[in-house]
Amino acid sequence: MTYTKKSLVNGLKWQIGHSAEKAKRALLLVYENQTQTEQRSSATIEYNGIGFSSMDAEILSNIAVFLKEEGFVTSRQLLVIKRLMPKYAGQVLASSIERGLIRQVSPRRWEILDREPKVCYNVKCDGNT
Asked: Distance between CA 53 and CA 51 in Å, rounded?
């Protein structure tokens, strides 16, 4: 089945806003897009079109660090993630395309490949996990 980019972004927005696992994966993915300096300062320093917006950087960076260290988020943190993260669906889509999870089949059509992305909380991921 093929999709337009707009339909993929809209689908991701819905999934991130309604699924705890998708929301947490999106949070970590966008957090990893932040520069090292931005991660350390929990702020947006470079306006490069990736990572968190300046309004969301502090709270989402803190939640991402908590998730990485503890391996879970609280119910309150999850509500914040599900409310704020859908706006980053475009970055999640771009990352999925870059990682080969989605491929372009024609100028305006995209296909989702059958590969389950791996999620690693509070441990280093390697090729075997």
From this structure: 7
